[in-house]
Design a protein that fits this description.
This protein is an alpha+beta fold. It has helices at residues 3-6, 48-71, 117-127, 131-136; strands spanning 11-14, 22-26, 29-33, 74-88, 101-114.
Length: 150
């Protein structure tokens, strides 16, 4: 058996066939995911795409905070606002995909503090280098397998 397969997973998600509500365990943390009522869920937690946006937003904010601390810049607060949508590929001039639909994430930063225009610009560039941003922008290899249930 592969060494990776026997290590404890970092995230476990449990659900049933009766609805969309999911129980998520991340180490000692418990989260919920669900779909909104308008999509057939019970809205007991964020949707999977909202969790994805939360991962990107929190990583972006952490990265900017760390960078500003290293540079000793006066960055007092970071607010990251995100939105996910599906767009026609033909409506995206900067995208490689030209046919069908593609996912678009709009990320807006609000940086509070005594920062120069140059520092703000550098922070915007740095936001695009956070690890989750790089992961979402790269090829992702997901290997699925089946495990025997009870």
């Amino acid at each position: 058996m592969d060494d990776e397969a026997i290590q404890a997973p970092s995230v476990v998600v449990r659900g049933t066939r009766t609805g969309f509500s999911q129980e998520i365990t991340v180490a000692d943390h418990r989260l919920q995911a669900d779909e909104p009522v308008s999509s057939g869920g019970t809205d007991t937690g964020p949707s999977p795409y909202e969790l994805l946006l939360a991962a990107l937003g929190s990583c972006t904010s952490m990265t900017l905070g760390m960078y500003a601390r290293r540079k000793n810049w006066q960055l007092d607060e970071i607010v990251v606002r995100l939105r996910h949508s599906r767009i026609h590929a033909e409506d995206c001039s900067e995208c490689e995909t030209k046919f069908g639909f593609l996912d678009r994430i709009e990320l807006e930063l609000e940086l509070t503090g005594r920062l120069t225009l140059e520092q703000r610009s550098k922070l915007l560039d740095t936001a695009e280098k956070c690890p989750v941003h790089r992961t979402l922008g790269s090829e992702i290899n997901i290997r699925s397998s089946l495990r025997e249930g009870h």
